[in-house]
Amino acid sequence: MRAVVIAIGDELLAGKTVNNNAAYLSGRLATLGIPVCRQLVVGDVAADIVAAVDEARALAPLAVTTGGLGPTADDVTLAAVAGHLGRELVLHPPTLKDVEERFRRRGVPMPPLNVAQARVPAGARVLRNALGTAPGIVIEEEGWAVCLLPGVPAEMAYLFEHGVTPFLEEKGYVGERSWEWMFHVTGLPESAVAERVGPLEIPAGVQLAYLPHAGVVNLRLWGAAPGREEFRARAAPLAAKMRAALGVYLYGEDGVTLEEVIGGALARRRETVAVGESCTGGLLGGTLTRVPGSSAWFRGGVIAYANDAKVALLDVAAATLADHGAVSEEVAREMAAGARTRFDATYGLAVTGVAGPEGGTAAKPVGTVCFGLAGAAGAAGERVVFNGDRDHVRRRAVLHAMDMLRRRLGGAAPR
Questions:
Q1: Which residues contact 207 (CB under 8 A, 6 or more apart)?
Q2: Structure confidence at residue 39 (pLDDT)
Q3: What pLDDT score was predicted for residue 412?
Q4: Domain end marker among 127, 145, 170
Q5: Under-70 pLDDT residues of the chain
Q6: Could you tell me if residue 415 is inside a domain?
Q7: How far apart (Å, rounded) are the C-alpha atoms in residues 407 and 413?
Q8: Which end of the chain is less crowded, N or C, counting CB atoms within 10 A of the terminal residue's CB?
Q9: Burial level of 253, CB count in 10 A (0-12/13-18/19+)?
Q10: Does the reported pTM lie above 0.90?
Q11: Environment class of residue 333 by beta-carbon count within 10 Å: exposed (0-12), middle (13-18) or buried (19+)?
Q12: CATH code for the domain of 94
C-alpha cells in the first residue's frame, strides 16, 4: 500500500505559504506503514486539481488532498473532485447543524456561503470537523480511495488523526508501522556530529538521518516494527553509544526543547532565572516563557537596547561601556549580574550584540554576540560570531544563551 499527497492552493505555488501540510501527511502516513510515493502541488484551478487526482490514481490506491474546502469562490476542490468522479453534491444535515452551531456560539449569523460546506459528494464518508466548518470527505471507488481534508493545519491534522486514520485501519490499509527516536544536539555543526556518530554500528532494521536546523542537529532513528517498544529495543544499543559519543552536546530526546530542559532543571533545583537583553529584544525571555509553568522559575527580564537603559535598569557601569563598548563580554557579565540582582533570581542571563545588517566594525563584525551568565559564584562571559541575516543571528543568540545556562545547570564546562 502506498499513497499520493496532493496539496492545493495558489499560495503554495506563489511561495506565500510553506507546504507544511504535505510534510505532516507524508510523515503520518509513513508511520502507518503507507509510504508516500509522490507529493503534488497545484493551485486553486479545477482542471489542475482533476489532473492531479488522475495522476495520483494512476500511481497509488490512496490519495490524500489538503486545501480548497472553504466557503469562498477560490475553494474549488470539493466540487472539482466530486464532479470529475460523477458524484452529486447533496446536503448533509449533521454537518449543517454543526456549522450553524459554531456560528451560534460565536454570536454571529451564519453567512449563506457556509451552507456550501454542508454539501458533500453522494455516497461519501463524512469526517466530522470539531475544529472548523469544513468536514473531511472520503470517496471510495473500486480499488482506490481519496481523502479530502481542509488546508487549515490544525483542522487537517485533527481530521487525519480522528477520521482518516480510523478509516485506513478499518479498511486494512495500515501496514507495519514506522517508529522513530529523536535525539537533539546543539553546539556542534552537522559535520562534527557526523564525525562522532558516523562510525557507530547501526543495527539491522534501524535507519539514521541527520536533520540540521538553525543551531540544532536532530538525529532521527527510525524503522518499521510491530510496536514502539520493539523498535526501541532494537535501537537501544545504538542510542546508548550515541549518548556517550555526543556527551554534553546532547540536550534531549523525543522532541523536548531546550527551554523545556532548562525549565525542568530549574524547577527540580528550586532555582530561578532572569534575563537582560539587548540585540535579542525580548526573544530570549519570550522563548523561555513558552514553557507552561515557567512562572515558577522565570522571574522577569529587561530589554535594554540603549546604553543609558543598560546603566539605569541593569546597573552596568558607565565606565565599562566607555572602556569596552556595549557589545563586550564585560558588559554582558554586568547585564547578567544586574538582571540577577534586580529580580532576585538564582541566575542572570544576558545577551548583547550586533545583529545587523549594519553596525559592525572590523573588531566587532555583524553577527558578534556576547553573553553573560551570573550566579552566586560570580559572572562568566562568552563571545561568538554568528553567520546569517538579522533574524538568524538573533535566533542563534537565544539558542546559545539558553545552552550556556543548561550547561551551568548540568555542571558542564563552558564551550
A1: 221, 222, 223
A2: 98
A3: 77
A4: 170
A5: none
A6: no
A7: 7
A8: C
A9: middle
A10: no
A11: buried
A12: 3.40.980.10
